[in-house]
Amino acid sequence: MSPGDFVPISRVFASEAPGTTVRIRGWVLRTRSSGGILFFLLRDRSGVVQVTGRRDALGDAAFDAAEHVQIEGSVAVEGVVAEDRRALDGREVRASRIDVIDAGEPFPIFTDQTEEFLLDQRHLAIRSQESVAIFRVKAELLRAFREFFDREEVVEMTPPILTGNAAEGGAEAFQFDYFGRPGYLSQTAQLYLEALLFPHERVYALTPSFRAEKSRTPRHLTEFLNLEVELAWCDFADLLIFIERMMVDVLHAVAERRPKELTSLGRPPEELLAIRAPFERIRYSEAIDRLTKLGFPVHFGSDLGTAEERALTLESKNPLFVTHYPRELKAFYMLQSRDDPRAVEAADLLGPEGYGEIIGASCRETDIARIKERITQIGAKVDEYEWYLDLRRHGNIPHAGFGLGVERVVRWVLRREHIRDTTPFPRTPSRHTP
Ligand code: 4AD
Ligand code: MG
Fold this sequence. Notes:
By secondary structure, the chain is α+β, with helices and mostly antiparallel strands. It is built from 15 helices and 16 strands. It has two domains: about 100 residues, CATH 2.40.50.140; about 300 residues, 2-Layer Sandwich (BirA Bifunctional Protein, domain 2). Strand 4 and strand 5 form a beta hairpin. Helix 6 packs across helix 8. The chain starts with 9 loop residues before the first helix and ends in a 21-residue tail after the last helix.
């Protein structure tokens, strides 16, 4: 069989009429044989189909070889498309020829294995139908974000990952030896995006961010994808409107394009289509009042952790903006609120159903003295941020931006218990292999 002849398995169900001879190839999802008939479930990138092969049609040698193919072994098949009510989606391929590409060794993954074992076998576990569905949805989500930014004339940038500053304050950065000087893995692309804003006005970057936090929670990774946007001439109201338009647009696109995967993963697409702007906005101080009524021992100045964020959105179907956090809780570059000097013009977007923070957003401080004061307060050195302060010295303008945790969004959209299921090779304090 020559390579050009193969069709994707989805064509067996879509365009190939019963009676047509097709050639397909892929990996064996399930295999069984009885009474001189072999059954494969064969998977390729486009779908899964049942293949049947009879000893009398294939010949003894080919039948015996095919019978020895293990789960996840690879084969090429030539056969006729046939209607079969018992088969998956009502059709199967009746093989006239099966070429074994690699019979494979016994596949180590089967049901009822521990989470730890499956994480050790992650390089193989990502072949599961569940993983396939998760990463197709994630890819669709990224595509929808890029399409949205394209339409909004937000330009994609490529900021560095190796840096000389620990951008968000220093405590949680991975440090390494950069030819005798300290280097850090990027915690955020924000400072670079702020620099790139002056020539481009509307920029975004999709880059990994690294956090050396030992938090073992179901929503923290040490490496995650940070989708960051920076917008010139943008005030706080504009910023929140941009974010909610983006979220509605992207969630609806994914619901329309991946209904099958969403349904199989426990998220009916209608639930995403029901999400509409505007999202509710509450001030941090109001969130504190609500939490106090719910019995949480919080006061103005308390950080909102997993439990608090969960309590605020457990009952809601729409995301929620919490705005105007106390200045001390937030990063040095956030704009001090002109109507409440204790607070910053910042918002966290909390996912519904208790999933918690998915976006961190703020207007950026434009006053150099205030930025220096905050850098000193967090115990960092002002001279390390001189290049950033230059941005306030040459054509300083109001601007705002945000970072969206891609895996956090996928976790909520796909109702995953743990964030590690939303990335193929999760990095957590206890694991950086495979
Ligand atoms: O809230 P964060 O720390 O904000 C920033 O990095 C800003 N500099 C972004 C910006 O304005 N350009 O991170 C942004 C988002 C969070 O809202 C959260 O969704 C996600 O990144 N995130 C994490 N996701 C997984 N694991 C972690 N350890 C995360 N830390 C933050
Ligand atoms: Mg945050």
